[in-house]
Amino acid sequence: MAKNQVAPIKGMTLPQLELMAAVLGAHLGRHLLDELELERVVYWSDSQIVIHWLSSEKQQNKFIKNRRKEINDLTGSKHWRYVPTHSNPADLQTRGISAKEFEDNTLWFHGPPWITQPQSWPVWKECDTTVLSAIENTETENCSETAKDKRMEPTSNVMDIVQIERFNSYQKLLRVTAYVIRFVDNLRKREDRNQGKLTAGELQRAANMWIRDIQHNIYSTELECLRSRTQHHLIRQLKLYIDPGNMLRCGGRINNAPIPTDAKFPLLLPGKHKFTHLLIQDTHQRNCHAGTGTVVTLLRQRVWIPAARQIVRSVLRKCVSCKKVSGKPYLAPAPPPLPKDRMLDSEPFSVTGVDFTGELHVKSANGRDKKVYICLFTCANTRAVHLEIVPDLTEESFLRAFRRFISRKSLPKIMMSDNATTFVSAAENIRRLSQSVAVTDTLCQAGTVWKFIPKRAPWYGGYWERLTGITKDCIKKVLGCTYM
Known about the structure:
Layout: H1 14-36, E1 43-45, H2 48-55, H3 62-74, E2 80-82, H4 90-95, H5 99-103, H6 106-110, H7 135-148, H8 170-187, H9 200-218, H10 220-228, H11 233-238, E3 240-242, E4 248-250, H12 261-264, E5 267-268, H13 274-286, H14 292-299, E6 303-304, H15 308-316, H16 320-326, E7 351-356, E8 360-363, E9 369-379, E10 385-390, H17 395-409, E11 414-417, H18 421-434, H19 437-443, E12 449-452, H20 462-479
Parallel strand pairs: 1-2, 5-6, 7-11, 11-12
Antiparallel strand pairs: 3-4, 7-9, 8-9, 9-10
């Protein structure tokens, strides 16, 4: 006889689902006892956590407590035994097997081979099993162990003796503090006084004293709540507890990980304290001025800083060495007002900017590859565009394109361009031409003035540079690699 049930929609952990399966099995066993009048029923489970919960008398949360009481009322905790996963027939029902495998499956029809031999039943030992438990359930034990430990550091405030505001180096702060502690210890001794260079243990003791005093000043409310066993949002969020050294540590779910204790249960440090900033700066410098992500990862191997990434980023932003190498240049000043020539309400192309685009590949009359260029004329007021194809970038080619432009669009009053050699020569020719007697009469009313933008300042001609880029993009998208 078998029975299964669909897992609830509400998210539950695997141990909780295993406990729900134990409840289902307990009801099924009670039904068989009542209907078949059996004398004894043995319950098997492959979840060591469930068996631990059923056999343990520790206070659990409400979910586990209610279901454990229900199972014990139906079966009793002494009738539950452990079965390895590979010998559990119920796994075939939950995991599923093919019909062909089901026909010849002896585990489902007859059970494991040792089921009829009680002396061969597997034995579960609680001491051989590691059970993950929530920090809330162990806070009472940790607090009691802390109260029993009398070998704590004195509760004197080291911040009243060493002024941390006078230090800008984490290592220097620890060394000065270690020398102060050694001096106090030597005053208490008459013989075997400690002298010589500082040891790693003394530096670690100084760091722990600083962390302990900072925690007792900043997190005094949380410490009182832990000692009085009252709830607090930070304690619940970070699963805080007091270690035997009278320091606040953060809990988690990696109790059994093969890593150091400081990494599993990091010390809590406030993000805005000077000591935390010095620790971040020292970690950053000792690791070759590493970035924000690396520094945060290294810090979390020992301490937990709320909003660590923002705090680390604000400290690293002040690093002078990093600023010299990867600092951003000075921001460009705010752009000035547009010149008066571009704000006139005049006819199109009265103020015209001119520029060349990049080369285009075309086929000549004899079928050979040839380079041509586009000369772009744009109105500074209406942004109208006139394009002319020129065979090269010489002065003669531009003057012919300029003649075609003024034949169709009239003569501009102001021409603007960069300081390219072609435009400079053309401007000289136009200026020389306009000085002749024959042309002076024609251009006396609408003479062309050629203006150049400052050298090495292409942003002054941004309105034609932008249109030049748009024109090149359109041509490339339409033609691609095709020859004209």
